[in-house]
Amino acid sequence: MTKTDNQLDSILLVLKKIRQETYPASPKEIGERVLIHIDELTCSRILTKIKEDGYAEITYGKVGNVEQLNSKYYSITYQGLQFLERGGYQGEGRRLIRNNIWSICKIIAAVGNAVIIIGISVWAIAFNKDSSSNSNEIKGINDKIQRIELNNKSFQHEIDSLKKICL
């Protein structure tokens, strides 16, 4: 993804290739074999990073039958080979971005879910108030009907009384 990831992967690939050929190699040899331009100092720093990550190891001095004092030779580790198969530093960067996007999507979904739940709750409370006021109105109408029926009965009673008197 980044220039540094590209450099790290390039050096890991060179270490893998050197492993198949001569195994191990000095920083200068590695820097010369990288397809992109990397100076020896940058190559040494990158090799240090790769070693700290556990993807390369250092052999000091003697390599095979040749002994050179104060010389560092690098070789790729088994973890380094596995790391390359998983995509290397660039693949790790892509996985990190993918995981960040997935986390953001999960947060957005959780917030959306919360908004929907709050909306439903507000609607339910408002509907319940409407139901309560409708219920109160219905009760008031039923009370009026009962009074009217009582008044009707009393009027009917008076009418019947008047009919008896008149007849």
Explain the overall architecture.
The chain is mostly helical and 167 residues long. The protein has a domain at 3-86: Winged helix-like DNA-binding domain superfamily/Winged helix DNA-binding domain (Arc Repressor Mutant, subunit A), CATH 1.10.10. The protein has five helices and two strands; from the N terminus they run αααββαα. It has a two-stranded antiparallel ribbon with strand order 1-2. A hairpin with a 2-residue loop joins β1 and β2. The longest helix is centred in the C-terminal third of the chain and has 79 residues, at 88-166. The radius of gyration is 43 Å and the shape is rod-shaped.
Helix content: over 70%
Strand order of the largest sheet: 1-2
- Relative strand content: 5-15%
Taken from the alpha-carbon principal axes, the silhouette is rod-shaped
Distance between the termini: 111 Å
